[in-house]
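INFO batch 0412 | record 1 of 1 | parsing
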Amino acid sequence: MPNKKGTKGLSAVNGHNGHNGHNGLNGHSGLNGHAKANGSSDKTKGYRPTDKEPFMNERQRDYFRQKLMSWREDILKEAKETLQHLQDENQNHPDIADRASSETDRAIELRARDRQRKLIAKIDAALHRIDDGTYGYCEETGDPIALKRLEARPIATLSVEAQERHERRERIYRDD
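INFO prediction complete | emitting tokens
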């Protein structure tokens, strides 16, 4: 059973997971000998976690590990494509309107990549929680996070109720 508050140094500031020391691009590989490098495992193929089985059993942990690793690989693939696109488009536009449009597009792409870099850090933190046995439990209450929530947001660190409380507190302090 995970510890209740202060789970392994991760925080829930502004609804985000803490950073586990991996830089996202060349840090945690997520493989840990538990899965094939292609992102699929024989144990999780066609499997969906249910409330009828013990919470966060080995099969569920493998399922979420695969889901997170696949998501991470997709993000890294997109980042490489974006980098290639930005390098290919590094041209001098003679028309000032074209240049401005190109710069705006570039700024939007870079902002999206920055958000994805932060998402990779959250994915790595979730993989670390799977490894240390705290994945799937609310950082605030220590209670299990609903499987439907984890399915929709595998990086979730708070139960729906705790997340709602957190957002209400955030709104109250933001309005001041």
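INFO post-check: The chain has one domain: 39-45+54-175.
INFO record closed
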